[in-house]
TrEMBL record:
Gene3D superfamilies: HRDC domain (1.10.150.80), P-loop containing nucleotide triphosphate hydrolases (3.40.50.300), Winged helix-like DNA-binding domain superfamily/Winged helix DNA-binding domain (1.10.10.10). This is DNA helicase RecQ. Residues 33-209 form the Helicase ATP-binding domain. GO terms for molecular function: 3'-5' DNA helicase activity; ATP binding; DNA binding; four-way junction helicase activity; hydrolase activity; metal ion binding. Residues 539-553 are annotated as: Disordered. It catalyses: Couples ATP hydrolysis with the unwinding of duplex DNA by translocating in the 3'-5' direction.
Length: 553
């Protein structure tokens, strides 16, 4: 139970050893703990598994022992709160949480213990923090000098540019306004430059010291393959490299989750579905099995994963494109938390690009917001189409130069590295070809067909014309008379799909979702037609798709 240990040494290293049983701090932990224990503010950017929890738990214990009272930890993750409070109890630290899982009697009890400053750490859900009742509780503590620290976990949730915006986080600015003397530490495992700046502004952390760790996860091997028959490709990947191992497969829709889980199960893989449409009890059961049993493959929407700490996830697969690099990094980061090799595998194709673009275009958001989202999507597409090292690209997105980590020991000679040696592009450098000619032919075809027929057509039909295939539809519309008919016969359909993917990615072709996904030219088409924008493409490395034995998408 929880007694005595809250008194004792206030020295961070002593607390680390006595309470947590660890020998030494890791990386920047010591500096962060010192900063916060001394009453300063901190913004901590540290990848998953880096050890963020101790960065606020140890200052909380030190400050409680020094008579400064209760530390408040804001977290959106109920499961994580429960785990951490349980672990703290075992270590003899008095901690509790306030969230929707408590009944009023239990909540009242926690509030009483908080008011008496009996707790060292109080975990609270963000929506609770800005309630009059909670603020009154904090007022009472502050008035007696018993409010020790605010820790804001998953701080990227405050930013609408992040991948997991939660409006309740905005209200957390009140903490600084109301209790300016109380130190704050904000923590996150993903934040690109834009999100980072937004966290600083929204939470008023201008004076906080920033601690930026390397975002590299050296044991994760990145691979992005061209999507043909995604289900079959996934099954092959699992059978070939991860038989009997635990993994997570991310899909975009609930329907797709169900289909893929069923397909894997039919093929003998121990797969379970997880999405928000399932019964809460079923979801819980699947999650428990994933955590406790060995070798379960969880097929899920992104509703799954936040706060789930399973060390031996050996692969994370994406069957659909995430929204942006932050999402991709966060989701793939759930693999290999134990430091052993893990695969981040993604299949992506033309339809993904079309879908993601359309989702942005059709969203009711402000145009400025859509612009930012398009920019973020483009960065992800550039990563997917990259022919050079994925790790170098991924880190560069977080402003990190591979080989020169921001947390490298001082005085150590460092130089940028161009190859990680473990991603797909490093292991087998893809052949690259110049797609400019093919791109111009494609654009011309779209233009001429529109001119001739007065309506637009979809990707398949345009490619048929370019490759000179006299299909029924081609004949019906007299498209064998279009001057570009057959002038792209030397290109395979795969190659042309790649070209089209890039053209859509760079905005040189638009897909009209309201008109059956027909293609049309944009202002950006002209530059490509004039040859001002080079189109460089990876030669497809994947094998032609096998005949589909199971249902199509
Ligand atoms: P994060 O929240 O950054 O993903 P955690 O705080 O959950 O990471 O820590 C990841 C793991 O590393 C946990 O099992 C934690 O106990 C362990 N850990 C953290 N710091 C240390 C340390 N200094 N020495 C040994 N183990 C540590
Ligand atoms: Zn590499």
């Amino acid at each position: 139970s929880t007694h005595s240990l809250d008194s004792g040494s206030t020295a961070p290293l002593a607390i680390l050893r006595e309470v947590f049983g660890y020998e030494a701090f890791r990386g920047p932990q010591a500096a962060i703990v010192d900063q916060v224990t001394a009453g300063g503010d901190a913004l901590v950017l540290m990848p998953t598994g880096g050890g963020k929890s101790l960065c606020y738990q140890i200052p909380a214990i030190a400050r409680a022992r020094a008579g400064q009272g209760v530390s408040i930890v804001v977290s959106p993750l109920i499961a994580l709160m429960h785990d951490q409070v349980g672990a703290l109890h075992e270590a003899g630290v008095s901690a509790a949480f306030l969230n929707s899982t408590l009944d009023w009697q239990e909540a009242l009890d926690v509030e009483r213990r908080t008011a008496r400053a009996e707790l060292t750490l109080l975990y609270a859900a963000p929506e609770r923090v800005n309630t009059p009742r909670f603020l009154e509780l904090l007022d009472g503590l502050a008035a007696r000098g018993k409010l020790a620290l605010f820790a804001i976990d998953e701080a990227h949730c405050v930013s609408q540019w992040g991948h997991d915006f939660r409006p309740e986080y905005r209200a957390l600015a009140v903490l600084h306004e109301r209790y300016p003397a109380v130190p704050r530490i904000a923590l996150t495992a993903t934040a690109d430059a834009l999100t980072r700046a937004d966290i600083v502004e929204r939470l008023q952390l201008q004076d906080a010291r920033q601690f930026v760790s390397s975002f590299d996860r050296p044991n994760i091997r990145y691979a992005i393959v061209e999507k043909k028959d995604a289900s079959t490709q996934l099954l092959r990947f699992i059978e070939r490299e991860h038989e009997g191992e635990a993994g997570v497969v991310y899909c975009q829709s609930r329907k797709r989750v169900e289909e893929v889980a069923q397909m894997l199960a039919d093929a003998g893989v121990n797969a379970l579905p997880y999405h928000a449409g399932l019964d809460a009890a079923v979801r819980q059961r699947h999650q428990d099995r994933f955590l406790r049993e060995e070798g379960i493959v969880m097929v899920a929407t992104i509703a799954f994963g936040m706060g789930i700490d399973k060390p031996d996830v050996r692969f994370v697969a994406h069957l659909d494109l995430p929204k942006n690099i932050e999402g991709y990094y966060q989701e793939t980061g759930r693999g290999g938390r134990d430091g052993l090799p893990a695969d981040a595998w993604m299949a992506y194709g033309l339809q993904d690009v079309v879908n993601q673009r359309r989702m942005i275009d059709e969203s009711p958001a402000a145009e400025e917001f859509k612009q930012v989202m398009r920019g973020k999507l483009d960065a992800l597409l550039a990563l997917a189409e990259a022919t050079d090292c994925r790790r170098v690209r991924l880190l560069a997105y977080f402003d990190e130069t591979y080989g020169m980590p921001p947390d490298a020991p001082e005085g150590e000679e460092r130089a940028p590295l161009m190859h990680c040696g473990s991603c797909d592009n490093c292991l087998s450098p893809p052949a690259v070809w110049d797609g400019t000619d093919a791109a111009r032919k494609l654009l011309s075809t779209i233009y001429r067909v529109q001119q001739q027929s007065g309506i637009g057509f979809g990707a398949g039909h345009i490619m048929d014309i370019l490759r000179g295939k006299p299909t029924e539809k081609v004949k019906q519309f007299f498209h064998e008379r279009v001057s570009t008919f057959g002038i792209g016969a030397e290109y395979s359909e795969t190659q042309l799909r790649g070209v089209l993917r890039q053209l859509i990615a760079i905005g040189a072709v638009e897909v009209d979702a309201e008109k059956f996904n027909t293609l049309r030219l944009t202002d950006g088409s002209r530059a490509v037609l004039r040859g001002e924008v080079p189109v460089r493409l990876r030669e497809s490395v994947s094998q032609p798709a096998p005949r589909r034995s199971r249902r199509e998408r």
